[in-house]
Amino acid sequence: MLPELLISPFDLSSGEITVLSIDFFDTLVTRSVAQPTHVFATLEQRLVSDGQRCYHGFARKRIQAERSARQYQQELDDRCDVTIEDIYHHLQIALGLNYKERVRLMTLEMDLEVAMCRSVPRAVALVQKARQHGVRVVVVSDNYLPSHQLLRMAEAAGVVGLVLSDIFVSCEHSGMKSNGHLWTTVLGHVGVEANQILHVGDNPEADGVQASRHGICVVVNCDMTRSHRAPFNAAPSLLSHSRLEAYVRDELCGHDWSIERVVGATTVALIIVDQIQRARAAIASTPRATVHFAARDGYLSHQVWNILKRDDSSMPEAGYLAMSRSVVWRSAINEASEKVQQKMIGNDEVLSVERLNRRLGFSLQKNGVDVDGREMVDVYGGRALIAANEQRLVESSHQLRDRLLGYLKQQGLLDIGRHFVIDLGWTGSTFADLADLVAEQSNGDSVVEGIFTALYWDATPQRTRLAMTSSAVSDFSGMWTNVMLLGLLKLLEALMTAPHGSVVNYQGAEHNFDAVFVDTEPEQRAYQTIVGPIGAYAIETALQILNNTHPSGVSGADVNGAAVWASIMQIGHDPRPEEIDQLGMICHVSAIDHEGDGEPLVLVEPPDENHGKIVSTLMHDNWWQGSLRRWQNDPLHCDMANQILQFWPEASCEWVRLLNSQ
Q1: Which CATH fold topology does 19-237 show?
Q2: pTM for the whole thing?
């Protein structure tokens, strides 16, 4: 049963309400994309795909033309709304169009609006209920589209029974709902007392406050606008995400909003699809190669691969490679150098000897006797102990290396041939170290290649050691792109994870060199509450996309690196407040021993440091946009956030502008 649009305490059957006034967009009719400006992105996609490459960036220019038209109208008469003709007049100037081209584009946009519109079932049911009780139904909308266009859209969406005289649009009546003037017009036309009108809409100011000031009964429901983000982020690359998010929006209409479903069924699912498709392509190009998904970033994709394999026996087995930066690094230690000491214990750390022992892989000794594990050491005492146990450190490292090689052999990575490793990426340094180790051990007969989702500029030096490709972002992308990626690495790692912890060691030969994982309480809590459900929705959606059965129509053919990057940006660089609140509770544990409370994705307040240091901290240790948005909404810290935005324009949520519309 469809959820009803709740209008209590108003009763349409009592005779007290004689007119039902209803907002049009996102109340009665919606679109197959997540927000209105993505219609322009769809038009841009069609124009460019038809060979009209001069319209690259059309969506952004269309948005700017509307801004310019509204600014011009504001200066002339702030009561009136703009028309679509006004907007296209400004667009004609911006694009250097002739009159015929201008009319053609405007007609294409209006036709596309009709093709992409969808009814909101619960609103349609309310309209039908009103008519059953003899209540007149009118539409009241703040919009630049004329009433005959809204009637076309309503009929295309299956909303029947409306007539032009019952559609009141701001662009035709010299006034808007948002400034109250359109309500005066509506009252004059319907000819009933204001308290006999019930208006249902989605804008608290225009549909709520302004209507109430005129004595009209109001119900405001914002369910269908929960997928709206910054309107200027509109580009064809975003459409896969937009269609998926619109589908979730429609499914959750009338229900509680699910951040887990939104994030899982968009960004995480698209990353999985891209990783699977690229793994398939790699195997197809090199039939005898093997493919391995890296723990933990590749856990979800590995699950999807195994599910697909059940129905497709031609797919090879895929490995699940338990690697971590700390394990690979510790296996290569040959001396207790100053750098090694610095990595083993941080400058501000105070920890127990027992925990330091776990990091080192052996028990520290002083004068030939084990140091009491309960003893606490600071940076100076801890590093001195490490230096004094150099021989034991090197021996432990070599033993770890032997176990690591045993594990790699069990995984088949020392076999002759090419081995593809799928991972989120970042710099590729861990797998460059792995490639060196494998090549050395196999005399060059075994070759490791990396297939990564995203790489930033620090990856470039690794290319001399590791053949690698990236999908969403490469280390050769622009500076702003790299900065934005850095600001959300920790978020992606928290979302693309597994129910188990990080690998910190390997067992001996008697246990087949099995990986040893360590679980932390913060990560377990996050997985049980939000990360696990995100993964479940992601797997379900990814399978539908790969099997071309997703109800939104999004298929594997729609998913490429640009689509993945756009989706990452929508969630990671343009998050909604509720996403920041819920995802911000996740703590990312990245200490060398993968123990401790970790670092929260979202910092509640800025550290007491200069702007440059704060930005550096956010980019490397936290979720940059999540923290900045949190501070912007806090009176105590909004000045700091605004200063950072002023000095670092790449911190703006306007990522499409920075990337020139992709």
Answers
A1: Rossmann fold (3.40.50)
A2: 0.94
